[in-house]
Structure formats: structure tokens, C-alpha cells
Amino acid sequence: MDASTSVETHHEPHGHDAAHEHHELGFWRKYIFSTDHKVIGIQYAFTGLIFLLFGFSLMMLMRWQLAYPGQALPVIGKWLPHIFGAGTMPDGKMTPDFYNSLGAMHGTIMVFLGIVPLAFAAFGNFVVPLQIGAPDMAFPKVNMASYWAVFVGGIVMLISFFVPGGAAKSGWTSYVPLAAIADSGPGHLPVFNGQTLWLIGFIFLITSSLLGAINFIATIIQLRAKGLTWMRLPFFVWAQFVTAFLLLLAFPPLEAGIIMQLMDRVAATSFFMPAGLVVNGTPLSISGGGSPLLWQHLFWFLAHPEVYVLILPGMGIVAEILANNSRKPLWGYKSLVFSVLTIGFLSFIVWAHHMWLTGMGSAVSAFFQTTTLIISIPSVIILSAFFISLWGGSIRFTVPMLFTTAFLPMFGIGGLTGIPLAFNSADLYLHDTYYVIAHFHYIVAPGTIFALFAGIYYWFPKATGRKMNDFWGKVHFWPTFICMNVIFLPMFLQGMAGMHRRWYDGGQGWNVSNEHTIWGLTGFQWNTPISWAAWIMGLAQIPFIINFFWSIKHGQKVNDNPWEATTLEWTAPSPPPHGNFVTAPVAYRGPYEYSLPGRERDYTMQNEPVEPAERIRRKPPAEPVLV
Amino acid sequence: MEIPYTVSTRPDTGLWNAKVGIWLFLASEVMLFGGLFSAYIFLRLDAPPGVWPHGLLNVPVGTMNTAILIMSSVTVVLAWAALKMRRYRAYWWYMLATISCGVIFLVVKLAYEWPQKFDHFGAYIKPEALGKYEQYLGNEYAAEKALPPRLEITGHLHNRAALNDPKIKEYEVALDPLNAEPTNPVMDRPHFFPLPVTDKIATIEKEDVERATMFLPTHSAYFASYFTITGLHGLHVLGGVLVFIYMWLPVSKKLYQRNPEHLANRVEVSGLFWHFVDLIWIFVFPLFYLL
User: Fold this and answer.
1) Contact assignment for A4 to B261 by CB distance below 8 Å
2) Residue B97, number of CB atoms within 10 A of its CB
3) What mean pLDDT is predicted for residues A269-276?
4) Which residues pair with B122 in a beta bridge?
5) What domains are there in chain B, each with its CATH number?
6) Average pLDDT over residues B142-149
7) pTM reported for the whole predicted model
8) Do A285 and B211 touch (CB under 8 A)?
């Protein structure tokens, strides 16, 4: 591209125009239809947090039905039918269809509208450009489009609660042919029904993720600051980089599946419908010849990488906070980077371990069983490196660090309990029980969500110039931590006792789980303490919500680098102005230079030039690598 | 600070931002169409003998559309090259040619090929009634020559009302040549130039029919994937055409006057997308028209 260099001069006046334009932005362009990565990040954060709360509320409703099946829900049970329709909770008692809707939408909303927008899009948008010393994302308008796509997708998902028949009710996996025939027939509208809206909403969510993923990768490749070589990137940036690749390459096959299921529903095709289906005694008028297994393959081809999409940004956040609060470099930075890359690659070839019970054949099972066990190796390397990073550190137990230290063992429990599920012989028994629920939630609830809370407390001062209150942070942390374990630990036992994950009455009507007791309670009776813990955990979020909004205006004012951290985002003013940095930053060293010997301070920021004395002592690298 | 490398290249990667972006986007598109094509393979492998249709599409028209699309891929490169040489006039004409090719492709697809299919009728005969329609199906002949069994009678439906009216007990079909002369060896293989529907009329009783529809997506797994994949491909062509129209309109001439390299980059990026759309068609054409 020699021709492109010759036009540098044409480019400069344009730059002047843009800077000039910035001062004239009105309220709508500055805060609503903004192209600034920080505003978009904050928009994503609010959206993600609201949907997390909403998805959690759906589960709190389900927990009533599980603990007290068939009983009227006190107080709010009276007005819920007025919101969701008379057929959902007549007299405050939950119908099976509504229970199924809540379950399907809890999964969908938590994963695709809660955690992905918050962990990937919000933290990625706000933090990544700052950490790599960039003025913004590579494509600011695409960034805005990506946010508004997720917004529309979220609205479509919400609307689906209010159409006749209610929201999608075939599980968050939408397995066919169940999903393809659900919400159709008498009493349902042709397009405005739960399952079809679920599919349409999904197309928007996928579009958003694709646009976001392209933007992140391009930004990280193209906009790294001078001197910020690949091995000087903070681990968080690496985690987001791999996550973006997962979204980029795993989502489109699901989009293909979604398009095909949409065709099955609106154009009466048979992509996923075998011949000879009979519904309510009537044979379906379809050509048949489709394959339900095809949907499962397309779904899990996304949905397995998706769990790494959920956890990798969390690991990135944990890495940053861990190094910062133990005041020493992250242990094994290179192994961490290579592990995360290995996870990214392997996560594409493990998906069928969700399908042991479909009878794929033993050769296929053996392949996926092997890859699944291999992928646990890089995960264990990452977790071990995190634990070793604590060794010998002078740990500061700040609020973000509390959540981070809780993340480590919780994620460990979640990960290790997944190993029995990786063996198809053990999974035949555990499949679709509460054991799976417990395993998965230990990874994403006390795992990812704790990392997200940690991240919010950690980067809050960068976004607002103020710190969140420490005391209320601890009041938020301890009950949440205890309740998480009271909720999910007994579920392992329930699952091993044979409780199925989709039982509408919590197992009361099935005596399987009553044969033996666990610590004096039957499997069914355990639902009650679990539900109470879930509701108490709901209350424990109130201090967080108040603290969050109160601190925006009234929190303790802090300087640009309150945590005495090393990475580039802390060299920018808090909150960073449009364009982020006053002068373009230059990186001279790695991301975690804590407690360098012979220095006054125990942290050395990435933009501090290497001193001559240091050059003799530290090698390699002798010279700062400038690109 | 301004966003760098929007037009000029970053020294260590040798790329400007949008070029990285478009290649990533194309990678995701490969996965999207990859998902659809693997569904096609999955469904086709699963289909029982005789169910997957052959030779229902118009090959000469498809060939022409292929040529048109390939031609437009050439003209878009010429348009880009003209911009690089700062010859706006030539760029304008090449872009117009590209846009025209895209529009012709879409018109042929949507106004000719698709409606022709919607107008065609097929009835799958129940296994127990196959013998009754042996004169139209020629299954004995097919078995003799080791051809796949023939389960469907196709042609033009004369009494359209029969599709929805339960009182009408039979379909009257002007037969396709294969069903008109099932034992003629000429019919053993599909033809490059499609043979016209004959004037031989068959009466098919509804009670002998397993399933009868026009050639809509609901007709079979074959037409389901044909309409879905060509429909999605058509949306991509439409998207490309709209982008090209924007870059061809006077509004882009202003960008050219301000920063010609920026416009050239835009054409290069959308040209890459256009080549990709072309490439997808190179897969669609043999999969649906020829194989």
C-alpha cells in the first residue's frame, strides 16, 4: 500500500474537523446515540445489569414453585397475573407453561442479555481501548450499531412475555421438534408468539455480538499504543481477544440454525422435523426429512464456546485485580496467554459432550470425550497460575479483591465437578439433573458474576472519578458469597440423588429423591433452604444497587490511579475525556511490574521509561521495543 | 487523540482498520454459510433413496446468473483500479456496471426463477399406491436400470383450487416430461435445457397422495434449503448493491475530492465482500443446480 502513505496530508484536515465537531455534540449524541467507547460501555453495563436482575427475578419466582409447589405465592402472586396475563399465575399459583417460560427465559436472558453484554461488551468496551492506549474502538459507528442491536434484541425478548401464550418455553436450548411446534396452533398468533419472537430476538443478539467481536479484534490488532507489543498486553486484553474470536466464529452456525428454525415455524419447512410427527393426535402437514440432531449440533457448536465467552472475560478481570492487590507480577504470564489461546481453539471441538444421550455413536463420543478432557488442562493451568500469584504477595483485601479471591475456589469447584460430566458413562446418570445445574452455575454465578462485581468495584473510579463505598461493598459481598454456596452446593447432592432439572413441582410428585436423605432432608425438602438462600441473596443485592448509584454522585473522590495499578488505563484522567489520553501513551514495559526491586514505589506503570540502571540489571529485553 | 489507521496503514500489520474488519466479517460469513451448507449435506445424506430431487432447476438461467456475478466481480476490481489511478469517470462507469450486474442477478432470481418454482406442482404418492401410477412413474423400468425409485409426480396443476378445497377429490396435473414418458431413456438423466411441461394430463386421487404442494420451501428438504440459502445469498447481493449505489452517488464524489484514497479503500473493502458473495454462489450453483 504505497499509495496510501502519499495521502497522509489529505487526512489531517479531516481530523481537525472531527475534533471540532466533538464540542458541539448535544445530549442525544453524547449520551444516547453516542459513538464513544466509554459511553457505549456504560450503556452496555446498565443494560447487562438490568437484565441480570430481571433474569434473577425470574428464577426467584421459579424457586417459589420449587419449594412450595402448587401453593399461592403471597403478596406479589396477586398482581403477577395482571402483568404477565391471566393464564400465567391464576390465584397466584404458577401454571406449568409459565414455569417453563420462566426457565427458558432465565437461561436466555442471563447468558445472552446479562453476562455477554456485561462481561464482554461493557468491560471490553470501556477497558480494552484504555488498556491498549487507544483513543477509541476502531469502528465507533459499528460499535453504536452493536449496542442498539442488543437493545432491540432485548426488547423483542421482553415483548415475548406479553404475547398470547407467553414467552418461549422450550428451554434455553430450544430443542426441536419440541420448540418448532411450541407456541403454535389455536390461541397463538403466527409471528407474535413466544418461540418465534425468541428466534427473531436472537438474530439481533447475534448481530450485535458479531459486530462487537469484529470491532474488538480489529481494535486490539490495529490500535495498540506505541511499544505495546503482544506480550506486553494486559491479560484482560488477551482474554477479550480470544472471547471475540469465539463469538465471531461460533455464533454464525447458530444463526444458521436460528434461520432454519424460523423457516420451520413461519414457512412450514422441515429442517429439523422428522417425518411422521403427530401433535395432539393430528399428523403434522410437513414434508419431514429433517433432523432434530442437526439443531443440537448447530446449537452446541455455539453454546459450548459460549461458556468460554462467559468465563474468559471474568478470568481476565480476575487476573488484573489479582496482580494489583497481591502487589506482585502475575505468575506465568506467558503460560496464561498460551492457555487462553489453547482454550479458544479447543472450545470449538468439544461441543458434542452436551449430546451424550442422543446416541451419536461411540466413536464420536470417544473423540469429544478426549477433547473435553484435554481442554481441562489449560483451564487448570490458568487457575493454578492465579493461585500461585497469591503466594508471597502482600495482599490488600479491597472489595474487588474479596470477590476475586472468592472467584478462585468457586470456579475451581465448578470446573472440577465438570469432569464427571465429561465422561459419557458418568454423564448418562448425571445428565439433566440438578448436578449439571450446580456445576454450570458454580462457573457462571459465583465464578463469572463475582468477577463482574469485582470488575465493577475495580473500574468504577476510572468511569466516575469516585470510589464505591467499602463498607457497603463488604455488606454486599459476604451474604452474596454465603448464599451462593447455600444455593448451589446442595444441588450437587440433589442431582446425585436423581432429581431432574426440569421437574415443575421440585420433585414432590416423584419419590425417587425421597428414598434417602441428605443431612436429614430429602432431595425435595432441600428446595426450601435453597429457595430461601436465593431470596436472601436477592436482598443482598440492594446494598450494591444503592452503593452503585449513590457513589456516582457522592462517592469518595479519588485520583487517576487509586489502586496504584500499572496498566495504561490508569494513566488517563478519571473519567477519561473524549479521545481518552491527553498525549498518545507509549508502553515501555510489561503489564504487571509490581514490587520492582530498588524502586521507591511498589508499582511501575507501563508508560514509565526504562531507566539506564534498570537496563543493566534486567535482561531481556534490554531495549524497549517500539512499533 | 484521533483514531489512527483509518486510511493509512499501520506499519507492523501493513493494514488499515477496515481491511482487518472486513476479513473478520468474512470469516464469520464463512461460518454462517458453512452452517447452512453443512445442514444441506446432513439433510441430503439422511434423505431416503428417491426423495432428494434432481434436475428441477433451470441450469442455463443459473449459468447465466453465475456468469453475470463473476463479471460483476471483475468490474468491481476495475472500478477500484480506476480509483487508484484517480480516474473518477472510469470508476463511475465500472461501478454502474457492477450495480447493474447485481440488479440483473436479483431480478432473474426473484422475478423469474423463484416464481417459476412457486408455479410448479408435485405430489408424493403413498407407497401402497405407487403401482397404481406406474404409467407415470416407471418404477419397474427405473429398478431395471438401477435408477433411484420415483415417488413423486410433478407438473402444472390445472385445478389450483384442489390445494385448499377438501371437496375436490383429485389433482389434475399437466405432466412434466419425465412423468409423461417415464420409460424413455432420454429421461434417465436431467437435461441441461429444461424440457417444457407436456400437454398430457394425469388425474391423481387425493387419497393416494402422501403430500402435495407447490414447489415452496415446505415442499421438501431440498426446496427448504434451496430457498433459504439462495434467499440469504440474495439478501447479501442486495446489501452489496445498496452499498455500491451509495459509493456511486454524488455524495461519494465529495469524499473522492477530499480524500480519494479513502474512497478507494471503501471500494476495496466492499469489493472483498462482493467477491465473497460471488464465491458463495460458486458453491450454491453446483450444489443445487448440478449435483
Assistant:
1) yes
2) 17
3) 91
4) B154, B213
5) 33-118+220-290 (1.20.120.80), 121-214 (no CATH)
6) 92
7) 0.93
8) yes
